[in-house]
Design brief:
Elements (H helix, E strand, L loop, with lengths): L7 H5 L16 H35 L6 E4 L4 E7 L3 E6 L4 E6 L3 E4 H27 L4 H33 L1
Antiparallel strand pairs: 1-2, 1-5, 2-3, 3-4
Helix pairs in contact: 3-4
């Protein structure tokens, strides 16, 4: 964090010399106002804006929760969403299928969404590695081969995404 406390006495003090009898130079009110505005702008971009951005991301995550998602509450309770309502959710925890009603604001993380994001990142990393490998081989028509490999990897990532809810449904029927 930016510490400007050492600058404040320099900005607001007058530069007078009592020994020589010079008149005191005063800072203009316009300069003082400009410094206050600049200080507020710095505070906004360093503290307020990032906090609002984080709050918006958390609210979007809470609004995007669907039935079947694995979530973690602020208290550390992990469970699968069974029912979604306006301001509350019913989650199922443990192998005993204990159901709990929690409010939306108490959700800390959507584990299912995080797993999807991690799988997508892994698929993109594999596609980039395949592209680098194809470049190293220097084959004629390597670009076509690279795009085919990338498309194949993307298809596997998409099928992994689509199979995830089906796997959750299968695990519910087995228990």
């Amino acid at each position: 964090m930016l510490n400007v406390s050492y600058l404040l006495p320099l900005l607001f003090s007058s530069s007078s010399s009592a020994a020589t009898g010079e008149t005191a130079n005063r800072t203009s009110p316009i300069f003082t106002i400009l410094m206050m505005v600049a200080l507020f702008a710095v505070m906004y971009f360093v503290m307020i804006r990032p906090q609002r951005k984080k709050q918006k991301e958390e609210q979007d995550m809470r609004d995007s929760i669907q039935i079947g998602d694995e979530i973690t509450t602020i208290g550390g309770i992990m469970g699968r969403v069974v029912t979604v309502k306006d301001d509350s959710l019913v989650i199922e925890t443990g192998s005993d299928r204990i159901k709990m009603k929690v409010t939306r604001w108490s959700i800390q993380a959507n584990n299912t969404a995080q797993e999807r994001i991690n799988k997508e990142k892994e698929a993109m990393r594999k596609a980039q590695e395949a592209e680098k490998e194809a470049k190293k081989q220097g084959k004629k028509g390597g670009r076509k081969e690279r795009t085919e490999k990338a498309a194949e990897i993307e298809k596997t990532a998409e099928t992994a995404k689509s199979e995830e809810p089906a796997a959750a449904d299968e695990s519910e029927t087995k228990e």
